[in-house]
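Hi U.,

Before I forget, here's the chain from the pilot set. I'm dumping it here mostly so it's searchable later in email.
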Amino acid sequence: MRTQEISNPQQFSGQAETCVVCGTAMPGNVRVTLGESELRACHSCGTWVYFPRPAAAQQAAIHDTADYFEHPYFELRRRAGDAQIRRCKQIMLRLTEAVGVSLRGERVLDVGCDTGLFLSIAAREFGIRPVGVDVGARAVAVAAEQGIEAYHTPIETAPEHLRDLRAMTAIDLVEHVSDPAAFLRELRKRLAPGGVIYLETPNIRSAVYKIGRILSKFMGGRPAALYERLFPPQHIQYFTRESFQALATSCELEVTQIGTRMLPSADTAASAPVRAAMAGMQGIDALTGERILLWATLRRPS
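Structure:
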């Protein structure tokens, strides 16, 4: 795999056709067609990139709509059940291990905090001081009602006092941002030296996406609703383990851990046949080690 330093990724005007990780031109190599849009694979680093590229304001607007907020998937994820508690504990244990000390009493900033469920559980179970930012006004209002210090803003314009942090999370978010390199650099700026970010994002090498691509090719992208569910329009890049590592390194972040994990069936808002199909494909992922979600802890060098 060839990688290169990312000095100034393209100005995301909606028409640039270069890879968001390595800057390689991407005139073709279409993997999935989604109506008037398409996902292309970078020959150089393997990242899938959504074209035409939306601007940051367009992405933020999508996340503040009723359709997005009230989607069954997110409503399911906001229920404080055993699955959500287990997931929070797993994330916090990985984050604490990477930081190297207890986070009790520390501010932990969740970027893309939604309604604050993760922060609420982390505060209760680990004694952190929860802080969140999100581009969805409705989600932030719910988080604030629960007593969380939450701000309706992208991280780039978050309050100045949200810096020198020892720990941050950005879960299921980097696939949504228009300029992922600029996003990671902004997170780095707000970390204290030696501070750690925990991230999760889809793993495009998962069998789920491979089979989805094959079906899309042979069925001509129909039914459209199926492929929009698998490749939602809010997800505008998909990483491989190697391409995400290259992106983080180019942003002067040290990858301390990287791996993959399965998506629990409790997090899948779908019919029983769809959940069964997902379980089968994730069984393949378990054998290959390319599970559907990619996770990593990134450290700002001291």
